[in-house]
Amino acid sequence: MANTNDIGIDLGTTKVMIYKEGEGVVLNEPSVVAYDANSGKPFAFGAEAFRMVGKTHKNIVAEYPLKDGVISNYTLTKEMVKYFISKAYNSKVMKPKVCICIPSAVTGIEENAVVDAAVSAGARQVFLIEEPIAAAIGAGIDVIRANGNMIVDIGGGTTDVAVISLGGVVCSKSIKIAGNTFDREIAKALKNKYNFVVGQRTVANLKHEVANCMPTDEENVVFKVKGINLLKGLPGTLEISTNDIYPVIEPIIAEILATVKQVLEVTPPELSGDLFENGIVLTGAGAKIKNLDKYLQSHLTTRVFLADEPEKCVAKGTGKAFELEGKLETGFRDVTPGFSR
Fold first, then answer.
1. pTM attached to this predicted model
2. Same domain for 126 and 264?
3. What is the domain range of residue 150?
4. Mean pLDDT per segment of 10 residues, for the chain of length 341 residues?
5. DSSP state of 92
6. CA 142 to CA 148: how far, in whole Å?
7. How far apart are CA 281 and CA 291, in angstroms?
8. Is residue 339 part of a domain?
9. CA gyration radius for the chain?
10. Helix runs in the chain, H state only
């Protein structure tokens, strides 16, 4: 049973969100750590550290300690988790129960680092939850019923596709193609085709404002970006349109579609009927690319729709999972050091 001392953490590749019972999402900051290059000691986290990305000198490094769904620096990740928990929950009277949704590809050592960080930040009990389960709960799906639902969660580092029924994952697949993949490919295309280099934030703006999974002449948005003209070696501007971006993102969304089809192919027939009635739910910030739902639906035999506040679904589901404690069959487990069921 959840209470106001319970918090859920979506430990994402690009964002960390913390959900607090009774208050909603109380923290939403980039998964960035800035540290001293000589000592390795971190001194800034989240939004403060993000402002330093691409603007630091050689003695300061600002980086994402999680990359493509994998914890690349678990020491920095541990410090980041500890900092964010302390920032979001500072009560000295009651220690919180903490549920953390971590990337699907983490190792046991990396998992332990995250758990240790939560405990050192004051958690009295720590749970881990699988991303598709958290996303489904956060999207408002009743995951306990004997009824099949498909979640396509497109985060920063991974896309997780899963069929859920009776409180557990029936079949699933995770690929390292997601929001960051769109960013990388857009930046690469600008450099290779136009000899133009732009910053990380500019690429993100292009993805959200210009990219369209089903472009038409009527929706051909033009966006002027600032960057470096490599041929001249000078700052400049470049006009990029929806039709310029589409050939870049099409292979990525095709790969996501192929993954959805692969999971559908191994879904039991009884649950396939449920999916036809219930449709497929898109969650995650990467699912907000314009018309992705229409693109997938045009290639499948069932409805596809975007969840409300898709970028917050995992965080909300992670926090709300305590309400289902004892009812979830898979994907939710107590990992508190020294705890034994």
1. 0.90
2. no
3. 144-306
4. 76 91 90 91 92 80 84 86 86 80 74 83 87 94 93 93 92 92 95 93 90 82 92 93 94 97 95 94 95 95 94 94 82 73 41
5. S
6. 10
7. 14
8. no
9. 21
10. 46-50, 74-88, 108-120, 131-138, 179-194, 200-209, 242-265, 269-278, 292-299, 313-320
125-129 and 97-101: which strand pairing? parallel
Print burial letters for 293-315: b (CB count within 10 Å at least 16), e (below 16). Answer: bebbbeebeeebeebeebbbbbb
Residue type at 111 in one-letter notation: E
The dihedral of CA 84, 88, 91, 94: what is its sign? negative
Cβ neighbour number for residue 218 with a 10 Å cutoff: 5
β pairing state of 280-283 and 304-306: parallel
Residue 76 within a domain: yes
In total, how many domains does the chain have?
2
CB 157 within 8 A of CB 103: yes
Sheet holding 15-20, edge to edge: 24-30, 15-20, 6-11, 97-101, 125-129, 332-334
Task: Answer yes or no: do 48 and 119 share one domain.
Answer: yes
The rounded distance, in Å, linking the Cα atoms of 72 and 147 is: 37
CATH of residue 289's domain is 3.30.420.40
278 and 216 both lie in a single domain:
yes
